[in-house]
Amino acid sequence: MYKDILVPVDLAEENSWKAAVSRAVELAQAFGSRLHVLTVVPDFGATMVAQYFPHDYEQKIVEEARQRLHTFTRDHVPAGVEVQHLVGHGRVYDEILRMAEEADCDLICMASHRPELRDYLLGPNAARVVRHSKRSVLVVRDAPNG
User: Fold this and answer.
1) Structural domain contains residue 72
2) Is residue 25 part of a domain?
3) How far is residue 91 CA from its own chain's centroid?
4) Which tens digits make up the pLDDT trace of 72-109?
């Protein structure tokens, strides 16, 4: 049913991936799908902020994220599931949408948490992806006690 599944993860925040990675792996195993595991490095390109970092800082942090992503998939994706590692650079929801298009994914599987007041004002990434994606989106919530 699904050939290519995009799973965005924040490597520093387990809640951003725990439930979604488990579900995406189940789907990949059931359908023989390929997982596209994505992490996003924020853009520090604003002139005011960028001047405080070395000129090659973003390249270094993207490469570090790529290495951490490989370690992550080794630890959380079982052997036999084909994985493509993706590192985006910019706003999280923009990169999720862009990478889903580029990789021609037919499903985006991502975690979400219980909305807080600040989420209603700013909008969580999952809500933005659902609103703007041309692909199917599965939003996986953690268990109520998890």
Assistant:
1) yes
2) yes
3) 11
4) 999 999 999 999 999 998 889 999 999 999 999 999 99
Give the chain's end-to-end CA distance (angstroms, integer): 29
Quote the pLDDT of residue 108: 97
Q: Tell me the residue range of the domain where 87 lies.
A: 4-141
Helix, strand, or coil here: 85?
strand
Is the separation of the CB atoms in 77 and 21 below 8 Å? yes
Nearest to 92 by CA among 34, 3, 12, 5: 12
14: DSSP letter = G
Instruction: Give helix 125-132 / helix 92-102 axis angle, nearest 10°.
Output: 40
What is the tally of structural domains in the chain?
1
Report the C-alpha gap between 136 and 40 in whole angstroms.
20
- Tell me whether residue 64 is in a domain: yes
User: Is 146 part of any domain?
Assistant: no
Give the C-alpha separation, 96 to 45, whole Å. Answer: 19
CATH assignment of the domain containing 88: 3.40.50.620
H-run or E-run covering 141: strand 136-141
